[in-house]
Structures
1.
Amino acid sequence: MGEKGLSRMKRIRKRGIMIFLFLMPSMLLLLIFVLWPMLYSMVLSFYEWKPLKDNVFVGLANYKELLHDKLWWISVWNTLYYIALNVPLIMAMALGMAALVTHTKLSKLFRGIYFMPTMLSLVATGIAWNYLLGTNNGAVNGLLNACGLSSVKWLTSGKIAMVSIVIVTAWRWAGYYMVMLVAGMLGISEQYYEAASLEGARPWQKFWYITLPELKPILVFIALMSIIGSFQEFDLFYMITSGGPGTSTYVTGYYMYQTAFSSMRMGYASAMSVVLFVVILIFTLLQNKFTKSE
Amino acid sequence: MKKRVFSIFMAALLAVGMLTACGGTKESSEDPAGMPQESGQAGTEDTGDKLVLTWQSWDPVSKYQPILDAYKEVNPDVVINYEQISDYETKINTEAAGDALPDLLSCKVGNTQMFAEAGILEEIDPEDLKSDSAYNFNDFWETTLDYATYKGKMYGIPVDGGNYAWVYNKKIFEELNLEVPEEGYTWDEFLDTCELIVEHKDEVGVNYATLINDYGIKTLLPYMWQNGVEYTNADDTVSNLDDPKTVEAVKYIQKLVDTGVIPPIEKLDEGSFPIVGMLNSGSIAMGRVALWEALKLEDSETLDWGIMHAPRGNDGTKGEVLYVNTISISSTSENKEAAMDFMKFATSEEGLRILLENTTDPQIAVRKSLKDVSVSQFATEKNAGIFVDALEYCKWMPNVLTVNEQMDAASRQLDRIWYSGEDVETVLRDLAAEVNELLKK
C-alpha cells in the first residue's frame, strides 16, 4: 500500500472516530432510556417482581398465564376491533382534509386548524371529550336534545363506547397525517393533471387515477404507523372510559397498565409488553419492506 | 486541523453535558439545599450538620406546611424534606428496588398492605405509643387504626382522611315541607322523598332528586353495609358479593334509576366535585358529597344547604365509606428514631390540630378529642358534625393484598348491570367468584 493509500486509511479512521464521538451522546441516551429498559422488561417477563426481595424466577409461567388469561384475549380482540375501525377512518379523514385544503386560498390557515388537535395534551383531550360525551349532562347530547333527538349513550353503552373513542382518536390524529398527505399532493406534477384535463377527465377521475396512485407510498406508511400507534394506545382509554363499560374498551395498552401499576405485577405486565413488542416489530418490518419497495 | 480539534471538543462537551444532566437529579435529591420545588421547608436553606429526613406523599406540600413549620420551630436541628410524588405506588416500589426509599412515607387506602408485604414499611409497636401518656394513643378512633394494620401488625399512624355525608338544598326541602330525619332517611323513606321531589320537579326547578356517581365498588359498599351485609366473611376469605342482601342492595339502586328519581348511573369525575356543581346549579336537590369537597359549597351565592346522614337500611343500619391516610417509616431508613419523633409530633393532638385548623380542604379528625376541629371551618347551621359522627359507622374494605384488583374487577362486572342491564344475580355471582379467587391470593 502506498503513502496515499495509508493517509486515506488514516482519514477514514479519523472520520469514523469523529462520527462515533458525535453519535455517542444520543446513542448513550438511547441505550440508557430505551434499549436497557426494553431488554430489562424482557428479562423481567421471566420473573415475579418483588421490589425489596429477590425477584423470583418463574420461567415461562407469565407467558403460560397469558395464554389462559380471558381478559388478555378480550383486550387483544378489542385492540384489533379498534384498529379495524380506527385506521380506515383516520386515513379517510386525513385524505379528505388534505384534498380540501391543498389548493384552497386559505390552505395554510386550514392546515393549522386541522393540525391543532395533535398539539393538545392527551390528558386535556380526554377530559374535554369526557365532558362532551357525557350521557346525562354531556354537551353533545345537549345539542342532540335541543334538536329533538334522543340522547346517545356515548360512553355508557358497551356497543358505542369503542366507536366514541375511535371518533376522538380520528379527530386527534387525522390532522397529523393530513400534513403528510398535503406534502405528497404538492409533490405531484401538475403536468399529469393538465394532460388529464386535455383528455376530458373529471375531478374525481383525476383524484382516483392520479392523486391516489401517487400517494400510495404515503398511504401505506400512514396505515402502518396508525396500526402501530393503535397497538400502543393507552392514554385516551385511560382518560375517557377506563376500559369500560365492562370490558368493552379494554385494550392491550390499558390492560398492561392496570396489571403493572394497579396490581403491581410487573413481571406479568412485562410478558404482555414482550408479546406486544413482537407484534409491533412485525408491523414495523412490514412497513420497512413496503416503503423500501416503493 | 482547527476544525478537527473544535469538532472533538464539541463532541466531548456534548457527552459531558449529557452525563452532567443525567446526574443532576440524583444530586438534587441527595442535597437538601437543592430541593425540588414541591419540597417542604425552605428550599434554599443551608442544612449544614442538621439531620435531614425525607417524607414522600402524593399531597401538595401546602397541605402539611403548617405541621412542617411547627416541627421546625421545636426541632431546629432537623430538616424535613417533603416531596410530592405523582404516580405514587410505582415510585415507591421503584425506590424500594433501587434502595432509595425516603425515611417517611404516606399511605392511602390500599398502600399499607402493598408496601408492608413488599417489606417497605417498618413495623410499629403500639405498646410503645400507648406507654407515652402525653401522646394519648387511645384518643385515636379505633376504626382509623385498621388502615395502618396488616396481618395484625401495625405499620403506620393515621393522619387524616375523609368520608361522605349527604348535602341537601334547604330551600327545596322547605318548599316541599320535607323534614330531614335526625338519623337520616331509611331506604323506603329516601325513595318516597326522591319521588316527591321529582313529582314537583318543575316547581322546584330540579331535573332529578339526586344522582349516583359510579365509583365501582365504592358506590355499592355503603348500600351493602346499610342492608346489613359485610363485604367479606369474618376471616376475609370469601366475599359476600353474591349474598341475597347484596343483590337486594343493587336492586334498590336499580329501582332508584327505574323510577326516574335519579338519572342512569354514569361515571363522572373521581370525587364528588360534579355533584357539588349540580347541587350548586340547582339541578339536583341532594347529593353524596365528600368532606374535603363540601367546603366548596360555602362559596355558593345561591345555594342554601345543610348536611344530613347518608340513607340507612330499613332496619336502621348505617354504613358509609371512610378513607384514612397514614404515615409510616420505611424499613431502610437510617434515622428511624428521628422519623418516629416527627411522626409522633405530626399525629399528636397538637400536630393534628395545626393541620385541621389550617387546611383548605377539610380532613377528618383521626383523634376523638379533635372531633369538632375538623369541621370548624363550616358554619354551625350546616350541621357538618355529621361527618365526624359518621366515624362511628364508616369503614373500608379489608386490608388484603389484592384490594386494587378487587376494585378493578368490581368496576368491570358492575358495569354489566349499570350499563348493559344484565341480570343482577348472574353478574354478582361472577363478581363474587372473581373476588373469591383474588382473596385466595
2.
Amino acid sequence: MAIDLSRRELAAALAALASAAAPAAAQTTPTGTPAELLTQAKQAVERNHDALQRFKLDRAVEPATRYEA
Amino acid sequence: MDDSVFYASISDLSARLRKREFSSQELTKAFCDRLEKLGPRYNALALPLREHAIRKAKDVDRDLKKERFRSPLQGIPYGAKDLLSFAGQPTAWGAAPFARQVLNEDATVIKKLDKLGAVLIGKLAMVELAGGPAYRFAAASATGPGLNPWDRTRWSGGSSSGSGSAVAAGLVGYALGSETSGSILTPSAFCGITGLRPTYGLVSRAGAMALSWTLDKIGPMARTAEDCGLILQAIAGKDGDDPGSAGKGYYYAPQYVRPFSEMTLGFHPSDWDTHADAAARPALQAALAAIRGLGFQVKEVEIPDFPYGPVISTILGGEAGSIFEDLIASGNVDKLADAKQIAGLKATQDILARDYLKAMRIRTLIRRAFQDLFYPVDILISPARNGIAGKVADPLDRPAPGSAAASGAPAPKSRGLQGLIPAANLAGLPALCLPCGFADKMPVAIQLVGRAFSENLLLAVGRQYQTQTDFHKQHPPVG
C-alpha cells in the first residue's frame, strides 16, 4: 500500500502529539513520591510471588504453550 | 448529511453507499469533519488521517461506480487504536516516549481492511502502552484522559479509550481496539457500544504494539453484534507474521449455530444481586432475564478457584518487562504520564523467571478448568463491569465511590463469575460486550463468554438480543 502523506501533515501530527504529552503528565497526581511508588510496585511483585508460592502444583504440570482453551 | 448517518450500522451504511445515496468521499469528509471537531472533546483522537482517507474514498467510489463490491466495509470510515502501525505516520502507542515513532509497515489488520476498501480516517487515543502493567489514573495517556461522551466528567474506559468514545459519539463508523485483559470490554461497557474480544490467535497482531505476547488480542468495537461479526470476518485469519496466529479464518455465519433451546447458559445469581452496584442491578437483571428468555437452559456456575490476579499480573508484567526493557533501562520510561505505571514497569524487572513459569503452569490448569466448565455450559454470562464508569479524577486502583465494593458491606460469600475478565483472557476465550441499559444516565453492559472460536454463537445471541432491545441504538447527546 502506497503511503505518501505530506510532510506538512506528518509534522503537524508530531507536533500535536508532543504538545499533548505535557498537559497529560501534569494532570496525573501521584499519591506518593516516585521512590515510594516504586517501593509499592516492588511490594506488589512480592505479594504476587507469595500468592504463587502458596499455590501447590503437581510437578508434572508444564507451562502453558497454548493460550486458548 | 443527516446526523443519523453517524450512528448507522455497517449494513445500513453499505446499502446506502451502494444505492448511491451518498458517495464514500462525502461520507468520509463528513466523518473526518466530525472526528476532527469532536474527537479532541473526548481526548479520543491521536492522529487525523484526512488526506489519506479522502484519497482512499476516491478509489472506493471508482470501484462502487463499476459495481466492484469487495465487502460490506467498503467505503465506510473507521478508526484504529494508536497501537496499530500505519506506515509513514506516527504510531505513538499513547505514550510520550514514542511520540515521534514512525513505523514503515501497516499492521496486518489495517492491510486487510484496506484491501476490502475500508477507509481509515484516524488513529484513536489509548492509555499509554495499553496500560501495562497497571496505571492509577485515567490521565495515563499522552493525549490526556479518555472522556466519556455520556458524561465528560467520567472516564471512557481503557485502554482502548479513544475507540470506545469515538464509536459512542459517532465519530467513526467503527473502530479497532485491543485487549490484554479488559481493554476492549471495559471501554465498550462504559461507552455503551458493542465490543468483541476474539479468541486468542484468531486475529493477527503483526504491526501492533506488543504488551504481552501470550495475552494480546485485537478486536472490533462497533454499534451492533452484526457489525462486530462483519469486521471480525475482515480482520481474522492466519498470518505468518504473528507467531501467535491460530491459523484459522472466520466467516460470519450466526445463522448456523444450534438452536438456543439446545444450549445452556451458565451464570451465578451473586453477580447480579450482590456483586453488581445497586444502581446498575435493574438494567443488568433485566438483561439476564432477556437473554434467558431467548430459550436457553440455565445452570448456576462459579468461576474456577485460581489466583487470577497474581497469575495475570506476573505473566503480563514478565512479558511487558522484557518487551519494554530498553525503555526502562534508558530512563525514558520516566516520560510516561502515570507515576504508578512508571513504577510498575520498573518493578517488572524484579519478576523472577520461576514466578513467570509458575504462573504459566497455573495457566495450564486454568485452561483445563475452563474446558471442564464449558462441558456442561455453552455460554457464560455476567455483568461486563459491576457498575458505571468512574469519575476521571478517581484513582482506578481503588473501588469507585458508591460502588458495591466501596460500600463496606461484607464480601459476598460466593465468588460468582467475578474475575471473568482476567480469567477468560488467561484462557484465551472470546467475549462479547452488549450494552443493556443505564444507571445514573450512564451505560451498563453484560458480557457473554464462549469456548475458543465460538464467536458465531456469541454474535448470534448478541444479534438476537439486539433485535429485542434498543440500547445499542441509543447515543449520547453530541454536537
3.
Amino acid sequence: MTLPAILIVAAALIGIGLYGTLSQQSFVMLMMGLELMLNGVMLAAVGFWSLTAGGLPTGQLLAIIVMAVMAVEMAVGFALITAVYRSRQADVTESLTTLKH
Amino acid sequence: MNVIDIAFWIFAAIAVISGWRVFCTDSMVRASFLLLLSFIAVGLIMVLLNAPYLGIATVFMMAVEMMVMALFMVMFMMNPAGLNPMMMVHQHRFSIAAGVFVFATLTGLICVTRFTSNPVDPGLDSVASLGKELLGNSMLIFETAGVTLLATMVASVILSSRSGRFGTADTGAVPPPLEPGGEPAGRQPEQHSGHAHHHH
C-alpha cells in the first residue's frame, strides 16, 4: 500500500465521478457523480496525511472539512431539486432551458 | 505482499468498480446503494491508513446520506425499481473522454512526482490527536464548519418550502410588466411543464 497506489485509486474515483457529473441527465444521479469526486478527494487527503505528513493532526482536519462540504452539497442540492420540481415539474437537466440563448 | 496490501487492493477494487457501476445500473435505488458500497470501501481503506475515526465516520455518514438519496430517488424519479432499462445520459462521448483524460492526467502526474516518505507513527493515537486538534488550535475552523452547516439547514428549508410569508415562494420571481397592467416581461415557462399552483 504505497502512496502512488492510493492516489491512483483516488484519481480513478475522481475520473468516474467527473464522467457521471457530465453525462447524467437526472439531477440526483448528477449529484452522485459529485459525491464520488469528493470521495476520491477524501481518500487522497487521508493518503497524504498517513504517508507523507507523519501524522500531523491538521491533515485529518482537512478530511473533516471535506466531509462538511459533502453534507452542505447534499442538503443544498436536494433543496434545489425540490424547488425546481415545485416550480417546473422538472427532474432532468434538459427541462431547464430558461437560461439558454 | 502482506495482509494489509491485499486488503487495500480488494477495497480499492470494490470502491472503483462499484463507483463505476453506479452509472450503469438500471435502478436508481440500486445506484445509491452501489455508491454507498464505494464509500464504505474507501472508509475501510482509511482505517487501514491509521485513520479509524475518519473511516468509521465516513461509513456512518454515508449510510445515512445514501438512505436519504434513495428516498429522493423514489420520490422524484421515474423507474426507481429498475424494471426497464435506463440510460439517461447526454454528451456521453465527451463525458467519457473528460473522465479518462482527468484520470490519465492525474495518474501521469502521480507517476512523475517524487513524494516524500514520512509515514505516520503506528503508535500514534490518531483519534486523540484529532480530538485535541479540533478542540484546541483548530477550534475556529471546526466551529466555522458547524456554523456553515447551520446556515445550510436554514437555506435548504427556505429553498424547499412551498410558500413564504407573503404568498408562494416564486411570487417575487415573476418579472414586472413592460407597460402598466400588461403581461410579465421576459420568456414565459413552457405551458405543458405546469406550475406549482395547479396542485393547490
4.
Amino acid sequence: MSTLALDAPTRNEMSKKTSAPKVTAETMAAKQRDISVSEFFAKNRHLLGFDNPRKALLTTVKEAVDNSLDACEEAGILPDITVVIEDLQPERAASVKSSRYRITVVDNGPGIVRKQVENIFGRLLYGSKFHRLKMSRGQQGIGISAAGMYGLITTGKPMVIHTKPKTNQAAHHIELAMNTKTNRAEVTVDDETDDFPPGRLSGLGKGTRVETFLATRDYPTGTSVSIELEGRYQKGRGSVDEFLDLTAIANPHAKITFVPPTRESAAEEEDVPLLKQGKGAKDKVDDTDDEQTPDPRSLADPSLTQAAPTGPTVTTEQDGVIVFPRAVDELPPETKEIQPHPKGIELGILLQMLKDYELENKGGTLYTFLQEKFCRVSAATASGFCEKIGVTSRTKAGDIEPPQVEKLFQEFQEAKLAPPPTDCLAPIGVRQLLAGMLKGVRAEFYAASSRDAAIYRGRPFQIEAAIAFGGDLPSEDSARVIRFANRVPLLFQQSACSSFKAVTETAWKNYSLQQPRGSLPLGPLVIMLHMASVWVPFTSESKEAIADYDEIRKEMKLALMECGRKLGTYLRKRLKMKREAERRDVFERYIGEIAQAVSAINGTDAKKLYEALQAQARRHTAIADLQLDEDGKAIKDDDPADQDGVIIVQGASKEEPPSNEPESQARISSARGKRDADPFAQSKAEAAALKVSSIRDDEQPELIDTKPVKRLNKKGEKPKATTATKAEKPAKTTKAKSPEPAPSPPASKPAASSKLRMRLVNGKLERVDEPGLF
Amino acid sequence: MAKKTSKKESPQRGSALSKERDEKTLKKLIDLADEVAKKTFGGKDPRLEIPLRTKSNTIWESKKRILQMGDATSDRELFNLNQAKQFMQTMLHASIIRGLIDEGKTHSLRGVYYKAKHTVSGTKENTFEDQDESDPILEDLEVSLGVLREELHIFASKRGDLVGNITLVDKGDEIDCRRMGSGGYGIPSIVEPSVIQFKKCEAKFVLHVEKDTVWQRFNEDRFWEVNNCILTHGGGQPPRGVRRLLQRLNQELKLPIICLLDCDPWGHYIYSVIKQGSISLAFESSRLAIPDAKFLGVRAKDYKECDLSDAVKIDMNDNDVKRAKEIAAYPWFEGHKGWQREINTMLSNGFKMEVEALANEHTSYVTEEYVPQRLKARDWLE
C-alpha cells in the first residue's frame, strides 16, 4: 500500500518547476527518475515512526522485537528475547537531550540463512509477510530495515547482525549499510563467529554478568541485531519500557529481558508506566535475591513485601536488568495462511489476480481459478459464478472480458458465501489475557472476553478485551486504554484508534463507573483491547492506530460490554456485600450490650445469649459471606466452571482502626487522596491475596495449561505464603494460576491451585479455607 | 419520690414505694427479657412490640373528649438496621430500671440517661449520644410495659410553679401555698395522691399561665389573693406533673381551669394539650387531660378590643400559618365555631401576640383589668 504514495512527489516536483522559464520538457525529463522506496522513506521517516529521537529509539526496539517474536513463533520456539540499550555517550552534559545509543536485540529464533540477510535487513519493502493473508506482527517488510536506515542516517554506522541458523555451526557475523539510492544493502563485514550471543553484552554491568544472562545454551539458534542511532531514552508513556511492559502482557509466552541505558535523557519526567505507580522504583531492586525459592518464609519477609507492590508482580529488576518472565509455556497456535475472500477484494485486485493466474497457469480455467485463489469457493459455488457471468466451467481465465470481470465482481458481492475461515487467527485467549494482565497490572478485579471471529472487508479478525479494576491503579484518573494489534502494543495516536472510540462509545455508566460524555470512563481501570487479524488496517505505516471500520468497532464494543457487565456485577455485588458487612457490624456491636442487659434483668446466661444472637446476626447478613462470581451469584463450592474469564484479587489485610490509618497507610493514602471516601477504597489499601477463577477447559483447547505464577501480597503478609503452599495441592490442570512473588523461572514453581477464594467477612476480606490465618 | 398508680387503685401512703406495685413492674420487665431470650434461643428474631405513639395511632374519643392511644404497635427488631440501636437502648434502660427497683431508688430522666450512657465495647460509639435519645426510649418502656413513669422509678425535672389559696401535703409536709413568697411552690414531677394530698382549698378557680414571667407578674400583683384562685404556670408546654396536678385540682376539687396563653399556634397547642392530651402521651390522657379547661386569652380580637399598640405584633411566618391551620383541623377544634373564628381572626390579623403584650402600656393592666373583666364576662373559649 505504501508504494502507491510514491507517485506523489514526482508530480509535485513537476508542477513546481513549470514556472521556471528556462525549463523545457527535455530538461525536466532529465531530472525525472525513479524514486527508491528507501529514498522516499528516508525523507518521510515520520511515516515509519521515526519522527523524533525518542520515538526512533522505541520504533527500533519495537520492530526488532516484533520480528523476533514472529520468527520464534513461526518456528515453534518459545521466544526468549533480550533487549539491550547501551548509552554510547554516558558522559554527555546533563542538558543534552539526545544521545547516541546502540540497540541490540537478541532472540532465540530460527536464525536467518546467509543469503537472505541483506534482503531482510538492507531493503525496504522486502518481506515474507506482505503477500500473504496470515496473522503476524509484521506486515509490510519495512520495519527493521527502516530502523537500520535511520541509524545509518543519524550515525553513519552500519547494522551489525549475528545470526545462527544451525545449531552446530558458527554464527554469521555481518555488518551492512543500506544504500538508499538503490534500496540494496552494502555489506562491509561478512565473517563467521562462535561468539553468539555476542559476549560483549554480558560485560555491561553487574546484572548482565550473571550466568543466566544470555547464556549460550539458551540460544542454540538465533539472531542478534545491533543498530546505533541518535535517540533519546526516557521512561513514561510511549517509552521502550512501556512497550516492553505491554508486549509482555500480550505475549505471556515470551520471556523478555531488558537492559536499559544507565541514565535517562534529560527532560521532564513523564508519567510513569502502567505498572510502576506510586513508590519509587528503587524499592524494587532488592527483592529478587531468591529467585528460585518459592519458600513461603521468604514471601513473608518484610523487605520483600515492601517492594512487591511497586512493580509488575512478576516483572523484576535487578542490577539494571529487567526481566519479564514467561507466564505461559505454550506457544500461540500456529496460524494458517488463507486465500482472500471474494467479498474482501476490489475490482482492480480481481483483474490483477486473473492476470497473474494466467501467467502462472497457462490455460487455467476461471472455474479452477475461483476455487484455488479464493477461500470459501467450492466447486458448486464456482460453477454458479461461471454460469452467472455467462461462461462455462471450461472458459479460460485469460479469456474473460473486463465487463465479465466486473459482472463477476458484482456477483461476489451478492453471493451468499460462508465467512472466511477463522483458524487463521490466533487470539491471545481469555486465560492468557488474564495471565498477562495479572502479570502486568496490579488490580483487584480482572475480566476478559474473547469474541468470535468476524469479518471486515472480507478479512477475518477477532477482538479480545480485558479489563483490570481497582487495586493499585490510580483512582482519580481516566481509565487507561492499552491497545494491541496482533499482540503488538500500539502506543501512539490513541484517539485516532478505533479501539479508543469503542471505549468511549461504550456506556460504562451501566457498569457502575463514571464516564463524562464522550470520554473515557473514570476510575482505577485499565482497558485492554486486542485485535487479531490476517491484516490489521492501520491508519499509517508506523502502525500506531487501527482504522475505524464499523465492523471492528462494533466487535470491540461488544467485547468491552461483556467485560463491563462482569465488572458491573462485581462492583454491585461488592457494594452489597460491603453494606451487609456493615449491617453485621452494627448488629454485632449491640449484641454484647443486649446480652448483658437481658442477663441483668432475668438472669439469662449472657454468654450463651450472646452466641445465639451472634449466630442470628450472621444468618441475617449471610450475604456478606458470599463469594462473588461475575454474575453476582453466590459461588457454590466445587463448581469452578461457573466462572469464566474473571479473576478477583482481594485485599486480605485487617481493617485498620481509623487511628492507625494515617501512619500505616500514609504513603498509599497520600497518593490516593480521596480514596478513603471511595466504596472500594478499603481493599485497594490492603494487601492482596489471590483468587484466580478457573476457566473452562474447553474454552481454549489449544492453549493448555499455564505455568503457575505466584503473586505477592502487597504487604507480603502470611496469606501470601499460604498461597504458595496451597499451590502444592491438587493442581487442577488448566485452571488459572496465581502469579509469582519473585522473578523465579516459572518452571520451578509448583502448580497453583485454581481455587484460592476470598470472602468478605465482617467487612474484611479473608481467605476461605484458611481460618487460622486471620 | 416515685410512686404511682393506675387510676383504679387507691392512694397509697406517702413516701413508701409500693412493694406490690414494684413486683408487678418487675414481673413485666422480666417477661420482656424472657421474651427476648426465648425468641433468640428459639432461633427467632428478637422483637419488642411497642405501642405506637404517633398521630395515626391516636384516637379522639369524642365522648370523653380526650385523646387516647389506639391499639397499633410497631415492632422493634434487633436485626433491622434502623432499629438495632433502639432495641439495644430499650434493653439497656430496662436493665437499669430493674436495678433501680432492686435498690428502691428513683432517678431523674437525665440520671437514667447518664447511667445508661457508655461506650459500646470495641467501638467508639456511645450507647446514647444525648438525653433526647434516652427519654423517648423510657416512654417506649412505659407504654410497652403498660406502667407509669413513676412505677419505673423515674421522675422528670421539675418545671412549673404554683401559688394560691390552697394548702397541700407533699410527702407528709404541709405546704401553705399562700405563703410562698415570690418564688412559689415548685410543682414536682410526681403529684400522685400518694405523694400530694389537698388539705384545704378556698380558691374558686385555677388560672394557668403560659410561662414563668407572666406568672411572676400575677404573683407580684397578688392576683390569686385578690381573685381567690390558684395561679400556676408550666414553663411553656406543661410537663406531666403540672398537667396531672391541674387535672386533680379540676377533678377532685372541681376547680375550673382557666388558661392564659399566648395568641399564637403554640399557645393554642398548649391549650389543646392541657385540654385533650397530647399524641405522645395519649396513653396517659385519662390521667392528664382536662376536657373542660378554658382558654381566656390572649385572643386575636384583643388587638382591637384592648387598643394595643403596633409594637405588640409579631409577624406570622409560613410555618406559623401552617401550624395554625393544622390546629384548626384538630377534631375538637374543627367543629367549634368559636375556635374556628379565633384562629381565622389570628390568621387574618397576620400577627401573633404574647401575654406580655397586655402589659405593654400599663404594667398591671393584665392583672387588674384584662383578666378580671374577661372572667366576669365569662369571655373565654372552651
